[in-house]
Amino acid sequence: MLSREGHPTGLGDACAHYGRIFKTLHLLQFLHGEPYRRMITAQVNVSESRHRVARKICFNNRGGTQAALPPEPGGPARRPPAGAQHGGVVDQPLL
Q: Which residues form the Tn3 transposase DDE domain (predicted)?
């Protein structure tokens, strides 16, 4: 309906042009309007907060790379938590 044999139909062309117009209006509004930017920033902050909570609950920060802890003065060097070097995956034999 939007394309035939790899070529867009008239309706497909119209949808593509509408999408370009919508994208251009969004960019212009984003660049020009301070309230619009603040609204988008607030939405992004909410979603990032939700992702941060999910990482804390589900992965306990083991989903990413962790740097080794600095050695304590006068004590032996400390090692990162088990499995940190494998992104949180601990090698265990299959049962």
A: 1-65
**How many CB atoms sit inside 10 A of residue 62's CB?**
18
In our burial notation (b when 16+ CB lie closer than 10 A, e otherwise), range 44-58 reads: eeeeeeeeeeeeeee
Domain count, the chain: 1
CB 28 within 8 A of CB 36: no
Q: What is the pLDDT of residues 13-44, one digit of tens each?
A: 999 999 999 999 999 999 999 999 999 999 99
Decide if 36 is inside a domain.
yes
Distance separating the N- and C-terminal Cα atoms of the chain: 52
Q: Does residue 39 form part of some domain?
A: yes
Q: Would residue 55 count as lying in a domain?
A: yes
Q: Which pLDDT tens digit goes with each residue over 55-76? A: 777 776 565 555 666 666 766 6
Does residue 57 fall inside a structural domain?
Answer: yes
Domain that holds residue 43: 32-63
| 7 DSSP 8-state letter | E
